[in-house]
Amino acid sequence: MGELVGCYLMPHPPIIVHEVGRGEERKIQKTIDSLENISQEIKQKRPDTVIVITPHGYVFKDAVSITTLPSLEGDLSQFGAREVKFKFENDLDLAREIMEETKKRNIPIAEVSEELIKKYVLPKKLDHGTIVPLYFVTKHYPDFKLIHMSYGFLPFEKLYEFGVAIKDAINKSDRRVVFIASGDLSHKLTPNSPNGYTPKGEVFDKTLLQLLSEMKVEEVIRMDKDLIEEAAECGFRSVCVMLGVLDGYEVNAKVLSHEGPFGVGYGVAKFDVTGYKSTSLLERFSTIEEDPYVKLAKESLEYYVKYRRPMPVPEGLPEEMYRRKAGVFVTLHKKGELRGCIGTVVPQKKNVAEEIIRNAISAGFEDPRFPPVREEELPEIEYSVDVLMPTQPVKSKDELDPKRYGVIVRKGFRAGLLLPDIEGVDTVEEQLSIALRKAGIRPDEDYTIEKFEVERHEQRVF
Which Gene3D superfamilies does the UniProt entry name for this protein (predicted)? Predict the structure, then answer.
């Protein structure tokens, strides 16, 4: 049985390499000292294989990637240090086992082979996100095979699950493995940052490192996405994968250093496995709350994708779904982005159940803004169902509240609807402007306004 002997968060600024920094690296000496300590520790652990996940390798929007070239090599010539070069044997057996475990979980994965590199004219050299951490490791311990992988822009929960697939593959092997999450923290940490500055950069760095030091895994995976985006980091997704690799283990975490004199945050941390847990957090991340409205929308779309016909109304739903009549909107999201939204203002079917079944199909196949949903997308689709309450005429805009009320604007046969509590729509003016554009009504025309509330049912992952 294989063994995970160590996990590490390591930054990758090329300037930290002496042949690149030529003295400037002394400004981040704490980081250098931490990486040296980690590398000496790795020497003592004598791993057979080192896995590096990097944000600067083959990064795809909709898939993680793993390189299957027989040998992996690269240098720092683009940073003026051609003499810093490495060549590693790829641990292809373990790499392929990781791919198999990943596919079992329906996580999209790209195999970066010779054929793929030629087809898309990709670089063959290892990236600096891999070379810089290994520059320190190989000074103390060069006798290992390498596995090179990159995260994709998948939901954080999916990246965590990818880490679990890696863990399972390690356990099935006979390898002693070290896992390195390569990544820098905020790139907007100080006013002298070349990427601009935001005070939230420091908030992001401190928050993430504090949560990691306490192994508050759920809070990491559910960190504020706006904060993550504004921080302009490149290591958070590497961390999500690493935490999945540690799923089911008791872990002693320690942040060794953090500094950012060049405006980019460099955090170094180690995660020592000390035992085993009886439960896996993956179940909490991948369990969908059984809201019957959401569940029916999900089952309806999946049934239609598979059989190309609407599913019959199932038995066992709450009685209200058989006798209640109301307009319903079904909204689909994928990776946090809208993927379809179709609904009915007034009921078209004999009950809410039939309304949901019909509108879930419409959201997936008839929203003109998007192509039809494909089968391979289904595991990534998130659903919400809004049941509309009766509309009320509005005499004054003071009666509106975009968080509480949706709106319908009308002029003759033209009408536009906007649901309440939509992300990014914070004012009445924004709400009405969008609704008017949808209806093709000019703001200076004489139009009527109606408002309505909704009963919102959302897919919740916890």
Answer: Hypothetical protein ph0010, domain 1, Hypothetical protein ph0010, domain 2, LigB-like
Cβ neighbourhood burial of 300 (10 Å; 0-12, 13-18, 19+): buried
Cβ neighbour number for residue 366 with a 10 Å cutoff: 12
Angle formed at CA 242 by CA 128 and CA 123, multiple of 5 degrees: 30
CA proximity to 108, closest of 331, 305, 378: 378
Q: Give per-10-residue mean pLDDT for the chain (462 aa).
A: 96 97 94 98 98 96 93 96 96 98 92 93 95 98 98 91 97 98 96 91 97 96 87 96 96 97 96 90 62 92 94 92 94 90 93 97 96 92 92 92 93 93 89 94 94 83 38
For residue 380, the domain's CATH number is 3.30.700.20
Query: Are 349 and 355 within 8 A, CB to CB?
Result: yes
Q: Is 42 left (phi over 0), alpha (psi -120 to 50) or beta?
A: alpha
CATH number for 421: 3.30.1490.150
- Please indicate, yes or no, whether residues 198 and 63 belong to a single structural domain of this protein: yes
Two tokens, residue 297: 């929308």
Residue closest to 220 by CA, chosen among 230, 207, 231, 235: 207
The token pair at 310 is 């609407």
Query: Which range of residues forms the domain containing residue 308?
Result: 288-388
CA distance 167 to 161: 10
Q: Rounded to whole angstroms, what are the CA distances from 7 to 1, 41, 51, 171? A: 18, 11, 10, 15
Contact 268, 35 (CB under 8 A): yes
Angle at 326 between CA 422 and CA 408, to 5 degrees: 45
Q: Which SS3 state, helix, strand or coil, does residue 456 take?
A: strand
Domain containing residue 37: CATH number: 3.40.830.10
Same domain? 304 vs 271? no
| Report field, pTM of the whole predicted structure over 0.85 | no
